[in-house]
Structure formats: C-alpha cells, structure tokens
Amino acid sequence: MTAMSTSYDSFGRTDQKSRTRAALVAAARELVARGSAPTVEHAAAAASVSRTTAYRYFPNQRALLAAAHPETAARSMLGEDPPDDPAERLDEVVRAFTAMLVDTEAQQRTMLRLSLQQERGELPLRQGRAIGWVTEALVWLTDVAGLSRPEAVDLMRWTAGALLHTALTTGPPPLSGARRSPG
C-alpha cells in the first residue's frame, strides 16, 4: 500500500479532498517562504483545516514538506513542443528551472537550510527533487560571488551548455585505475 495521503485522497469526495490537500500544501509553502519548517499542525491552522483532517493527508512533517517543495507542482521543465537538439532542450530546461528557482527563492532557501540542518537525512527535501547543486549554485552566485540574479541565471545556463558540449564532444573522463574495467 502507498502512503496514507494517496489512499485517503483516492476515494470518496475526491474534488473536496483535492481542494483540502491543495490548501494544506499552499499554507505549508507560505510558511516555508517565511522561513519556518511548518509542522502538520501549523499548516492545518494556517489553512483553517482541522488537525485530524490534515493528518489524513500528511501523516508527518516529512510528508508535508516533501509535498510543499516548490518544484513538486511541475510535471516537466520542457515546454509543449520541445526542440530536438539536445543543447536547445537543455537550455529550455535550465531556463525554466532557474526561472522557477528565482520565483520561489524564499522557499528554496528555507528548504536548502532545512536540508542542511537535518541529522541523518530525516527530511527528504533534496531526494527526488531538482538537482541540489543548482539551487546551491544560485545561492552561491548571488550571495558569495555577488552576481545579480539575471547574471547568475545566464552563467548557470552557460555552464550547463558547456558541460553538455564537453560530454558530447569528448565523452566521459577516463576512470581511475581502481575503477577501470578489464579490457
């Protein structure tokens, strides 16, 4: 059986349940944007939903925060008619992803802080989500290197393109002696 939220959401008044779940996720995202790590109780109060009802959707803080992560709403970073060229496809993804990062920067920073503070990976804030180094790169480029957000985004797009070009033209680096397969 899958997580409690999936089974509860899948039967009965599904439209109402969808609205309730969306309200809880929106409340959690708003709380995260303010810099907090909301519990199920905090999100329930902010969404005007009873605690008991909220726990039917999210059995714990871990499930709530995973659902509230900004990029969980995105199905794909490619547009409706993606280009065939790998470099153009990559640029489209990086452009969409960095736009989402900038738009949700407060939430991204809170989620990054929370993921770095957790002991033994208790919260899955970086698992199965967008590549963590991309979010960290935006923070580093703006906070440490002093670039503007548009400059940081341009540099991130250029870097992704350069990595793809190198991978396509030179292939992977040689493996170290310990990892080299017999040949």
Reconstruct the topology from this structure:
Elements: H1 4-9, H2 14-33, H3 40-47, H4 51-57, H5 61-68, H6 86-103, H7 105-117, H8 132-144, H9 149-170
Characterize the overall form. elongated
Average of per-residue pLDDT values: 80
Helix percent band = 55-70%
- The helix-strand sequence is HHHHHHHHH
Low-confidence stretches: 1-5
The number of distinct β-strands equals 0
| Individual helix count | 9
Q: What's the number of structural domains?
A: 2
Structural class: mainly alpha
Main sheet record: none
The amount of beta strand, in percent, is under 5%
What radius of gyration results from the CA coordinates? 20 Å
First-to-last CA distance: 45 Å
Protein model, in words:
It is a single chain. This protein is mainly α. It has 2 domains: 15-68, Arc Repressor Mutant, subunit A (Orthogonal Bundle), CATH 1.10.10; 75-170, no CATH class. Helices cover 63% and strands 0% of the residues. The protein has helices spanning 4-9, 14-33, 40-47, 51-57, 61-68, 86-103, 105-117, 132-144, 149-170. It is elongated. The model is unreliable at 1-5 (pLDDT under 50).
Observed structural traits:
single chain, mainly alpha, Arc Repressor Mutant, subunit A, 2 domains, 9 helices, about 0% strand, disordered N terminus
Quick synopsis:
The protein has 183 residues and is mostly helical.
